[in-house]
Amino acid sequence: MPSTSVVNKDLLAERSKCTFDREEFTVWWVGGKDRLEEKRNREHFCMNQPEFGDKIPLHYLSHKELYEETIRKATAIFAKSKEMVQKKHGYNAGNFVKFLDVLTGDGFMHQANPLAVHFSMFVPGIMGHGNAEQQERWLDRALNCKILGTYVQTELGHGTFLRGLETTATFDEETDEIVINSPRLSAYKWWPGGLGLTANHCIVMAQLYSKGRCHGVNPFMVQIRDEETHMPLAGIEVGEIGNKLGYNGVNNGFLGFKNFRIPEKPISSVLNYGTMVFTRVLIVLDTSQMLARAATIAIRYSCVRRQSVIDPNQPEVQVIDHQTQQGKLLPQLAKAIALKLSADNLWKMYEATQVDLETGNTDRLPELHAVSCCLKAVSTGDAAAGVEVCRLACGGHGYLSSTNFLNLYGSATAAVTYEGENTVLYLQTARYLVKVWNQALKGQQLMPTVRYLEQYATKPVKRFAWSDSTPVIIEAFQAVTANRLRLANEHIQQRVKAGRTPQEATNETGLELVHLAEIHCRGFILQSAYAAIEQACQTASQPLGEVLREICRLVVYDEALRITGDLLRFTTMSDPDLVELQRKYEASLGAIRPNAVSIVDAFDYPDFILGSTLGAYDGNVYERLFEDAMKSPLNQEPVNRTFELYLKPLMRGKL
Amino acid sequence: MPSTSVVNKDLLAERSKCTFDREEFTVWWVGGKDRLEEKRNREHFCMNQPEFGDKIPLHYLSHKELYEETIRKATAIFAKSKEMVQKKHGYNAGNFVKFLDVLTGDGFMHQANPLAVHFSMFVPGIMGHGNAEQQERWLDRALNCKILGTYVQTELGHGTFLRGLETTATFDEETDEIVINSPRLSAYKWWPGGLGLTANHCIVMAQLYSKGRCHGVNPFMVQIRDEETHMPLAGIEVGEIGNKLGYNGVNNGFLGFKNFRIPEKPISSVLNYGTMVFTRVLIVLDTSQMLARAATIAIRYSCVRRQSVIDPNQPEVQVIDHQTQQGKLLPQLAKAIALKLSADNLWKMYEATQVDLETGNTDRLPELHAVSCCLKAVSTGDAAAGVEVCRLACGGHGYLSSTNFLNLYGSATAAVTYEGENTVLYLQTARYLVKVWNQALKGQQLMPTVRYLEQYATKPVKRFAWSDSTPVIIEAFQAVTANRLRLANEHIQQRVKAGRTPQEATNETGLELVHLAEIHCRGFILQSAYAAIEQACQTASQPLGEVLREICRLVVYDEALRITGDLLRFTTMSDPDLVELQRKYEASLGAIRPNAVSIVDAFDYPDFILGSTLGAYDGNVYERLFEDAMKSPLNQEPVNRTFELYLKPLMRGKL
After folding, report:
1. Which of A55, A243, A524, B26 has the fewest CB atoms nearer than 10 Å to its CB?
2. pTM
3. Among A419, A534, A586, A623, which one carries the catalytic annotation?
């Protein structure tokens, strides 16, 4: 920590302007007093473990050093945390996995870690899907880290398209064994976290062949390294896939098989709708947190940083007083909140569906799947873009690794691709929308999140009556989606009539389909945020209610101003309406401005989670930037050896 | 290089579909046969110098190792290149600096290098602005690298706002010396390239004080390190500012002064409009090249990669056959070309202005400045965003450092902030537009790039007559700018009438102003591209002309579809017009698709400039990905030492 503990006076002034009870906001944001207490206890515990810190900031390390430091830290965290959980609650799987939440995300280990996949995918893979015998064999060992595992699916040549996987698992009738092979380079497994040098077991997805016939992709439990020596077993080629934009602590790996024999039958099918939706809820929550952290950093810095005058007779202003800066940052703050509230809503849908499933009712599964697809896509895309808006709003200093923006971006943008590439996900949602649109055209009743389509399918096309109240703007998003869906559906049918196959016609309408799925999702997000905030306002104090409603208005105006083409096209919005909307948007920025620091304070991120020289609570940004620079190995000696080796010979003309 | 030199068969098929003469395209793109020959000779020379390669890919090195490797490579390049230039042309400043072009950019050294600023800013700083005595003292030594310099302006507390600099240079009458001080931490110089551990001299910008009065910011030549030992001189605190998102070879530094005395008077004023415009032309050219390289990588990979079926009875398609993929990549290709052609246009304006200046005519300076501001902003913003679109279009593999996307993004996004932060630049252009708008309202004649405003200022508001021919769409951008300018100007005046100062009113209209400056610039870019392509078509072969016109249409449609809100608002565009525009856009994607690989081939980037596992000419992407991974230091031993240190103790419960 910097030697100074004095809080920057501009931040003090900002905090003194707060109109609401910050603790009340935090309790709401975190989801209750108990959760908040639990969170703070966990953070307090972590903050006070000296082994949990980085000796040198990770951004100064080599690729290899970073892996080694990550393993040191991750194993220390797991061991210490287990000990703590044992003392406090008695050790069991549930307690431990819950506690590990904070450790498997990137909030604490800013380039993540290779044991995360062990707990997030390997252990659940065994718990959910191995049979009783298999569970007995592996579950206890996995939970106690006696074996270290990962989940191995993607290959060099195939990611999204599961059916295309090339790894083969051939049943050998003579020995009753399975023989696994990577028939060519593109069949090599590529990407699984922790696979490179860490895991000794994995669940491998491969095409099952038996009696010359392919039975499709199945999961197999495979030991890949010796438990005593950690050497790769014969027939196994394993290593790590190299440096990446982010997540360099994860130790993503490759894996090739050459006639590798396992005694096992496949374990039962691994993925189902439920797991996928559950994972996507977590992704939306995670990325909303990344965006909230980026907004925290940039908003605090924008109140400390003074640059340029507005009134030539006055001193330079806090950069947040430039309207353009407010227009960059405050919508990110509001968006982070809206995304989190949508994840909460998706979670409720997921729970309701689980209850339905227990009674054998699968009606809502396709709807749940469709929402989870587009919500994952919008949240990861918006969070990644928003982190960059926040970084760029910090000017040159935002480019420094010590701000932690690069790690936040690395994590957010990775989520754009993993667990379903965003464009592919939009197309899945669009496919669902086209399907239900055609049901609605036939007069069938639709599921709740798409029920709004019914009125547009059954009535003649009429412009939606615009007004700029929040609920009406949200309905306008639905009107836009419905109209775009009607057009895209017509274009698909026109193409089919012109002789294209339905698949070709759909592909040739792909851009329109992606676009409408996105707008459908934005309507869902705004509706989720609006409903959650209105509900919160029933019990919240009046000052907090006012702040939350202002945040809701800001995100709604911001989103509406991004689709003015659609609004002018499909609603009765006029030119003066548009001027008025812009005016209201600007007023909303101005209304949130005085509370901006207090809102991000209320997100309640400790400095070690933010991990940023520009975002710390005390606002001593220049001291922290300088302090990080002084940790650079290049600053430990006044003259680098390259002076004698290269620079001096160059200067003397002797190179 | 990978052992295989067989070109991927899908790329061969793509190339066989080419409808135009690739070499003719390349000659046009590079700017003539002579330039192309020069470029290829230079590349051939560089390719054949073993010292110019990296021993280990830079992304595996630590921050310190990367600096040391960069110095090794940069000094080798400078020494070898000088020798070569000497042999071939006879050594002189002009020849050498021209040759160094390729070396100071990031095309060859993917994280750039600390000697770049020596040639791009330090040497020109002396050439352009030192007096005769000063030139004699430093110029020859600087040109021959007998001293190593940099240009030192920004501070921890101030970047964009030059007047706010806090470093003081106080004239001491008694000793006839200047005493330089950093009165507080925020006054420390921060960011200059090469300043950290490389330079021993620099041009320092500081507030000149004499007889108790401040005479504003002036440049001073300062020696900071001993030429023999490289030790920092007494009174100098110097070091590097730490790790960054990109450009880690540049060795950006900090510099603090404590009563540091120099014998010099300030050198004459350093920056003028000309230098700034010149620098911005280079930035637009550079960033257009970054985008073109990213498009090359992504388009080649998208033709090699096969993923998902369209027809269920057919094999998986090349991913570029998904319309959504075309919609991501082909506009980037077209945009890169349009940005390059706008830079050419700005360059012509710059040259014409230089001729004017010689006759004392400064009339076009403000216009030139206004165009250079917004063009720098749009090109850097679009290039950075476009690189990320290309990266994400490569799915998970795009996230690997070996693709070189991270370096391209690091370079492009840095340019968003340096040499004038983009929002600040947009506001400068907007200020010019508001000024000339008010001139036009008074019936005054405007300069060529804004002359179109006259008709909108003098005639009553009428909707612009939409049609989707290229020149009309370009005029529509002008109509949108004029209408938005009219509104913003009215809003400023309304705010002034309501009691705000003109500065406050302008700040409160900031979002509108930024927006209209951007659209003005997009009109300029489209107009520049259209004019340049029409001119090229006068001499080009018919097949090339067709391709170039298709590229122009694509970028025009793409830009138009991004401002449909404005087009519906300010032109007569109807709903069927919009449907038709979308249809034409899709047709344009389809028309360019078969030539996509050939167009990026015609950009003529050798593999070592692209530096990408996914973008190489032969398309052996999986071999190259694997090969780069195998260079990882973590893959040099089957078991990392952390197994015995941490993993095994964890597994045995002994941690």
Report:
1. A55
2. 0.97
3. A419
